[in-house]
Amino acid sequence: MALPAPDIKFDLRGINAEVNCLHFSCKVQKPNIPLLFSGASNGYVHIWNLNTRRVDTILNGHQGKSVYWVHTLHNRDLLLSQGRDLRICTWNLAEGRNEEIDFISMESVGFCKCALLETENRLLAMPGREISQVQVLDLGSKKIISSMNSNTDNKWGMAMCMKLWQPNSGSSPMLLVGYEDGSLALWNILEHRLVSRLSCHKDAVLSLDFDCIKARGASGSPEKELNVWTIDEQQNLKAYKVQELVNPGIADVVLRQDHKILATAGWDSRIRVFGWKKMKPLAVLQYHSATAHCVSFSDHIAPEDRLLAAGSKDQRISLWSIYQNI
Q1: Is Manganese there in the keyword field (predicted)?
Q2: Does the first or last residue of the chain, that is N or C, have fewer Cβ atoms within 10 Å of its Cβ?
């Protein structure tokens, strides 16, 4: 049984559209301001001042098309936003600017969010033109350094979600992709090679996250199950555990940065929190009145300041101080 849920700390309103994605930028020293970025179904990116709990800036660069991924670069001097207008926009936020300075054209009409790896060369994973294709782009040169496809007549369906990371051993970054047919695939980027594949869901893999230290990850789908899986020393994907839920539909799965807890966003409007070590249910957060689309953990320096945020179809963002309760 989950513990009694903590109360909401505060909420953010006034977006007037569904909230599809969230991204914190709070690892700053005073007088810099902790920020929360949100992408909405009306094409706007809102930049929230977490001290005043109000919007500082609204960015409009996706022609009214839904924004479903945002991420900061260069200590938040730059922002990437991905929209249904088939563009990944780059925004200059340095010294109070709010200008679109570049964009990358996409060829996929799906809902798969990009994945970013910040190494010496910033790498961006994104869905390709062909139905099961995924590509990795060098952000500096804008050159595609890897393109990977299922080579099975697109039986896997569309790429739905992905996670890009750099292993401690080995020179190549690795990419995990969840597909429409319910399978997960592990790709070697530099070798453009499928390393392993696991059929772990009966329906599309809607979201995933991966703990590269424990070599363990979790994924969600329209089903009533949260699937946990591992990558062994031979880089084989293996089923590990299935966590049964009360209601179907997991829109988002996110691990906290310290890899101690995991949160999910549910179609039933609930935010569920689990202990990552044993997948013990810790709390069910109830505030939203419609589907929860996304969750995100803040990166505040001080643990007592850290937050969990959730965005919903009900056009609101809820923020929770679960660190003091869990």
Answers
A1: no
A2: N
Backbone phi, then psi, for 159, in 5-degree steps?
-70, 130
The closest of 133, 126, 189, 184 to 158, measured between CA atoms, is: 133
**pLDDT tens, residue by residue, 42-71:** 999 999 999 999 999 999 999 999 999 999
Would you say how long the chain is, in residues?
A: 326
Backbone torsion region of residue 68, taken as left when φ is above 0, otherwise alpha when ψ lies between -120 and 50, otherwise beta: alpha
- Cα-based distances in Å from 210 to 2, 152, 215, 324: 23, 26, 7, 25
Which residues make Cβ contacts (< 8 Å) with residue 232, sequence separation at least 6? 215, 238
If DSSP states are collapsed to H, E and C, what string results for 167-196?
CCCCCCCEEEEEECCCEEEEEECCCCEEEE
Tokens 């969750």 belong to residue: 295
Q: Are 317 and 37 in contact (CB under 8 A)?
A: no
Contact indicator for 185, 155 with CB cutoff of 8 Å: no
How far is Cα 174 from Cα 165, in angstroms, rounded to an integer?
Answer: 6
C-alpha closest to that of 88 among 59, 119, 62, 56? 62
74-104 pLDDT tens trace: 788 999 999 999 999 999 999 889 999 999 9
